[in-house]
């Protein structure tokens, strides 16, 4: 059991590191398009987000979950998972703001782990699920 816990923890840490790197990439691209190229903020954000989700899929697929090939079906599942994780984030932030009356900064800080953990768990169980163990004859 403990080796499995260690392997899962390594995957979770890698997932988090990919998220940090991806945030830097996405924000850098958005700012470069907006400030450097004069793009409207919403267009810059949309392109930055699209590049970020593709980068996140590629890095998580290969490095975090050890997939050998990128697959279109997995990518669509990954996009769906990230949309669901955003809803978890949104629900957490809304609850913290409106039901718990937390300040906006605290509500946003509470939403970040909701997003990350739900994205990881859904990715692990649905998009990058491990292959079933071999059956004996």
From TrEMBL:
State the signal peptide span. Answer: none
Ranges for domain GtrA/DPMS transmembrane come to 14-128
Highest taxon of source: Bacteria
What is its membrane topology?
Multi-pass membrane protein
Q: Where are the transmembrane segments?
A: 12-36, 42-60, 72-94, 100-122
Q: What InterPro entries does the database record attribute to this sequence? A: GtrA_CellWall_Glycosyl (IPR051401), GtrA_DPMS_TM (IPR007267)
Q: Keyword GTP-binding: yes or no?
A: no
Q: Has UniProt tagged this entry with the keyword Protease?
A: no
The UniProt keyword set, sorted, is: Membrane, Transmembrane, Transmembrane helix
The record ties this protein, via Pfam families, to: GtrA_DPMS_TM
- Where does this polypeptide localize? Membrane
- One GO term describing the cellular component: plasma membrane
Q: Name one GO biological process term.
A: polysaccharide biosynthetic process
Kindly give the PANTHER family that the UniProt entry links to this protein. Answer: PROPHAGE BACTOPRENOL-LINKED GLUCOSE TRANSLOCASE HOMOLOG
What does the sequence similarity comment in the record state about its family? Belongs to the GtrA family.
- This chain's protein is named GtrA family protein
Which species is the source of this protein? Ideonella livida
- Write the lineage as a comma-separated list: Bacteria, Pseudomonadati, Pseudomonadota, Betaproteobacteria, Burkholderiales
């Amino acid at each position: 059991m403990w080796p499995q816990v260690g392997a899962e923890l390594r995957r979770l840490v890698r997932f988090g590191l990919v998220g940090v790197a991806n945030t830097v990439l996405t924000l850098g691209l958005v700012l470069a398009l907006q400030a450097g190229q004069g793009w409207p903020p919403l267009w810059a954000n949309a392109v930055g987000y699209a590049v970020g989700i593709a980068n996140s899929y590629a890095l998580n697929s290969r490095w975090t979950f050890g997939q050998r090939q990128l697959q279109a079906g997995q990518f669509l599942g990954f996009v769906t998972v990230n949309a669901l994780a955003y809803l978890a984030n949104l629900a957490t932030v809304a609850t913290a703001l409106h039901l718990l009356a937390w300040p906006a900064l605290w509500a946003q800080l509470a939403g970040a782990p909701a997003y990350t953990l739900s994205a990881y768990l859904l990715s692990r169980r649905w998009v990058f699920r491990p292959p079933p163990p071999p059956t004996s004859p």
